[in-house]
Structure formats: structure tokens, C-alpha cells
Amino acid sequence: MSEPPSDLTQTPPTPVPAAADRRPTVAPASPASPDPVSLLGRPRRRRLWRAIPKAWRTPLGLVAGVVAVAWLVIAVVGPSIVPHDPLAQDLPRFQPPSSTAWLGTDELGRDVFSRVIAGARVTILLSLLLVCLSMLIGSILGVVAGFFGRWVDEVIMRLTDLVMAFPTVILAMVTAAALGASLLNAVLAALVVSWPSYARVVRSMVLSLRTSEFVASGRLLGFSPVRSMRVDILPNVAGPTLVMASLDIGTAALLLSGLSFLGLGAKPPMPEWGSMVATAVQNFDKWWLGLFPGLAILTVVMAFNFLGDALRDQLDPGATKA
């Protein structure tokens, strides 16, 4: 008899790897655990980023903010960190930019870099003072004219129309020349031509707010006119007024520099950007005399204009969409 076939199949033996192939198995590397310090720093950075207004988070707004803050810091602490005395005449005349004088020297041997830094305090701080005074005077007159109306409104608005009927620069030049050429008189002349725009804008807003229900309710409850203007009117006109003021900082810097350029503002040897450009016109072949003060005026004006646009987008986003 033949033997029945076996149903069990024999599996071949597993080959044993050679000694050279016997390598230890390396477990996959686990991702590195984050540093606890970096984990603590991330929420803080996020909070700081969110604290910045949304409209200022754009690249243009950030650059303008950095430039504006840098100029403000320079205006405050600049004269104490300049390498040379802005009035000292101890360097060679008409020296081009070099390691000794970073931005060159002028016709009297004064360091241009030190004079540009020192001039920031004159131009920027006086521009801020001019804008604050213009906003204060114009806002008060605009609120009074819009709230009381009648003959008060007529008197204030006719005075505003009289000032605005003249070209701004021409009227500022005539006023500064009548008062006398000095930096203080230049600020007063610029103030004369700057407040009417605030008065007209604030008056138009007060006219629309005066008939609002919350203002009428306060008047029926016995609120005095001063309290109504202070509590109900001023908070509602503050936003557009601040936007207008931020945009006017650059205009104020240009106006003051222009008056000094014409000899109606700062007088030598005071370091002021407009007067430095005027001196450069007399020495046109010395390019560094007018280039760097002009760049300072350009950066200040553009930075504050861009900041004003970002502030407008933040306080009135509907106007941008429209």
C-alpha cells in the first residue's frame, strides 16, 4: 500500500543574517519637546501683537510707526547724544561725509549730523505744539459755534471764512513778517492759519449731534450747556479730530520749515531743518548740506501721514470701505 500524501507543508528555515548585517535597530527619534521658556514667551508676544491696533499691523503702518517713534526719541534725547556740539566751528569747512563727520560739515565747519539731530527737537516738538494749540482753539470755537448757533455761530464762522479766504502759506508769511522774524512768531503765524479747519470740521459734527436724542435728553434733565458739551459732544468728536491732528503734524513741520527757509522762522546759528536747507541753496555744489535735512523733513512728514491714515482706518473703518 502507498502512504497517503501529507497535508503539512514544510516551511523553509529562515536565513540567519551574517554578522556584518546584524546592526542594532534604532528607534525613530521623538520630536524634541519645546523649551518651556519659549512656550511662556509665545502668549506674551501674541498679547503684545494684539495690543497694536489692527490698522497699524500693516507693513506700511509698522514702518511709519517705527520711524515716527524714532524721530520722537531723537527729538527728546538727541542733543545729549550728538558726537559734536551743533554750534561748534572746530572742523574743516565743507568736508564731505567721512568717519570724522558722518554727514559732512557746513560752511562754518559745523557737524551736519549733530545739527540734523539737534534740529529734530526744534522742528518736531514745535510742530506737535502747533498742532495741539490749533486743535484746542479750533475745537473749542467749533463746539461753541455748533452748539449755541445763531449770532455766535455767525461771528465765529465769518471769522473762519475770513482766515480761510487767504492762501495758507501767503497769510502765514505776511503774519510772520508783521510780527518779526523769529521762531516764536513763526509758530504764532502758523497757528493763525491752522485753527479754522478744526473749527469747521468740529462745528459740522456738533450740528449733527446737537439734535441727537441723548443730547436732548440731557438738556431735558437739566444739564447745563457746559456739561452737555463736555460729556455728550466732545467724546463723539474726539476721534475725527485726532485723525485730523495726526495728519496735520507733517503739514505743520513743512510750514515751519518753509518759514525758516524764507528767513521768517529760526535765525542762525540755531539748528533748524528749514534754515539748513536755505543755507544749502547758497552752496548748491555741496550736496550733503541740503540732502540730509531734506531727508529728515521727508521722513517725518511721510511717517506721520501714514500714521494718520492708519489711525483713520482704526477709528472709522466704514470710511475706508466706502
Short summary:
This protein has eleven helices and no strands. It has helices at 36-51, 59-77, 112-148, 150-164, 168-179, 183-210, 213-220, 225-261, 273-282, 287-315, 317-321. The longest helix is centred in the middle third of the chain and has 37 residues, at 112-148.
Notes on the structure:
The chain is mainly α and 322 residues long. The protein has 11 helices and no strands. The protein has helices at 36-51, 59-77, 112-148, 150-164, 168-179, 183-210, 213-220, 225-261, 273-282, 287-315, 317-321. Helix 8 (225-261) packs parallel to helix 9, helix 8 runs antiparallel to helix 10 and helix 9 (273-282) packs antiparallel against helix 10. It is globular, with a radius of gyration of 34 Å.
Write the layout of secondary structure elements.
Blueprint: H1 36-51, H2 59-77, H3 112-148, H4 150-164, H5 168-179, H6 183-210, H7 213-220, H8 225-261, H9 273-282, H10 287-315, H11 317-321
Helix pairs in contact: 2-3, 2-10, 3-4, 3-6, 3-8, 3-10, 4-6, 5-6, 6-8, 7-8, 8-9, 8-10, 9-10
Proper CATH architecture: Orthogonal Bundle
CATH hierarchy, class: Mainly Alpha
* Secondary-structure element string: HHHHHHHHHHH
**Can you tell me the number of structural domains?**
1
The low-pLDDT segments are 36-40
Secondary-structure content class: mainly alpha
Terminal Cα span: 105 Å
Q: For the report, how would you describe the main beta sheet?
A: none
Strand content: under 5%
Count the E strands: 0
CATH topology: MetI-like fold
| Rg over CA atoms | 34 Å
Q: What integer is the average pLDDT?
A: 81
Percent of residues in helices: 55-70%
Count up the helices: 11
Overall body shape:
globular
